[in-house]
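Budget justification, computational time. The allocation requested in the original proposal was used primarily to generate structure tokens for proteins on the priority list. As evidence of use, we reproduce two of the resulting records. The first is shown immediately below.
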Amino acid sequence: MPFRFGQILECKETQKQIVKRINDILEERLGIPRWNGKHDPLDSLIRTILSQNTNDRNRDRAYQFLKKKFPTWESVRRAGVSEISEAIKVGGLANQKGRRIKGLLNWIKEKHGDFNLDFMCRMPTEEVFKTFLPLKGVGVKTLAVVLMFACGRDIFPVDTHVHRVCRKLGLVPNPSTAEKTFYSMQNLIPEGKSYSLHLNMITFGRTICQARNPQCYRCFLFSECVFEDKVVYAQSA
């Protein structure tokens, strides 16, 4: 699905107000995360591919092992898929991720001659999506993460935790896909608050609004939640 901000339906003001209120509550309870500054988009892109279907710890370990075995991206590109997969196996799905990383690096080298992706931070968001979405292993969430973390763009990535929290809070239709949630949420976020809301929703989703055992009894967004079983979970604590 190509990215077109123009295709996103106009949102009711009340929805925007709800999102602002939720963001304010999250910042009051969890703090206001601060962006650490611009860093290499390719590093961020590779880390995001490695993060698929694993946790942050294993992602970071896989990245460290990859860089230790292959000191440059050119050396990764020249390596066999089996060598790459062996280096990143701690992150899971190593063969799949190894093929995707090698394919990505081959594409970047062929198209741009080197591995400097700083131009991504200067491209309009729609152009970034149009250019990179056709690549294997590069999805909407991946590109949004790179643009936000590496480039500091005011864009709201939607991972598993954010998707679940948005549905529980009634911000998007349920059922919905993470990609649909991404497109639906972009025009709801207060200006300049995508980074803060993204990280705080992840923290909230990991610690309170968990997938298997939501901690409804201690949820400070209980009154905002539309989760049908929240009262049951709150009473079962």
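The second record produced under the same allocation is shown here.
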Amino acid sequence: MNDCLKERLRRLRHEAGTTQPGFSATRLPGAQVFWSDHPIPRVPLYYDPGIAVIVSGRKTGFLNGATFVYGAGSYLAVGLPVCFDCETEATPDEPMVGIFLHAEQAMLRELAAGLAETDSASCATPVTLGVEPLPLSPVMLDAVSRLATQLCDHAQAQLLAPATLREVFFHALQDRHGRVLMAQTRPDRPEARIAALLRRLDRDPCRDRSVEQMAAETGMSPATFYRRFREAFGVSPLQYLKRRRLLRARSLLSDQGASVAEAAHATGYTSAAHFSRDFRATFGRPPSAEHRATGS
């Protein structure tokens, strides 16, 4: 893997002023550096649609009975807002280093329109999972490396990086295996309609919806919606929404220093005891421990 790219990401992390494992913002809103210098056991994570490029270290994902590994020289294409279990392999000598690039829907659709003829075949097969690990091609590595270099400079980050980010997604959509991202550019596809629904639900996380209500919003029958959802996400719609709420709550506790009561209320729980039971069952520790770990 490109040592220069690794050094650029190290510099971006240093500029962010954080020593904690996790995600750090860059000068471009659509790009985040992620880092860990120690192993992280299997834990639920949430990914927005986008691309996770791994520079060093390795991750193992678990979704719908499938296990997939992505490490140096590969990237994870995330076509849906998906929750899955993930295990991180990292050491101080070989830390987990990577960059996550968010997929902006309008940009994807515009790129896909220009690739409609050459990429139409890649959309013919239904997407069975919302994520795909893929090899990083030399041309895509070159674009990611240039993007990391541009993000280290304020002027380049403003004037050049947005076009380079677009170039990275151009190459990802051209990948003959890139069905996960390409499928989301077709609003008539079930996966794209479900993804649009989940984006709407994310803006109103406290509101409960039944499977029948969600199916109606996507224009599918409840049975078809349920089947398509399980195929892409590996869990039922209600299980997904519950896990998404708990992941949001964990972020409020650990990243924003919210109290347990505040995190429960913000994610739609009316009972603190119910929230604590669900949190412990999902993460193996009570929410109070997550809150104390932040030093708040």
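A brief technical remark on that second record: Confidence is low (pLDDT under 50) at residues 119-125.
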